[in-house]
Amino acid sequence: MGFFQFVIIFILLSVLIERVIRKRLGIEKKKISETAGKNVDRWGRGIILVTFLATFSYFIDKDDEIVKWYWISYYVILMGFQTYIQWKYLKDSKEYILSLIFLVLGIVFLLSVDSVL
């Protein structure tokens, strides 16, 4: 199986898993942008993005394993921040549970990319 086929299958599985989890747990789709956490979310994501873009040039010419862990750490920090913001500002929602599940699935995906290439 090629890399692009793997990515397409992963995306399709993610959409399916999201729908099933939302239905089973009764999670309604809510957005941070509709809460008081809107600015905190934007600033936090911006700071995380700028930090990782600023350090990207240092890691790009390193060993593939180091680059992989760079992306895994970026994903964990970004999804961890998203999960925390959802937990804090969407108190009546279980949206953060979905983010936690996709945090784990994303890590599994990033760790398995080597075996597909």
UniProtKB/TrEMBL annotation:
Transmembrane segments: 6-22, 43-60, 66-84, 96-113
Top-rank lineage group of the source organism: Bacteria
Keyword Membrane set for record: yes
UniProt KW keywords: Membrane, Transmembrane, Transmembrane helix
Signal peptide per UniProt: none
Alphabetized InterPro entries for the sequence: DUF4181
Pfam family for this entry, one: DUF4181
Protein name: DUF4181 domain-containing protein
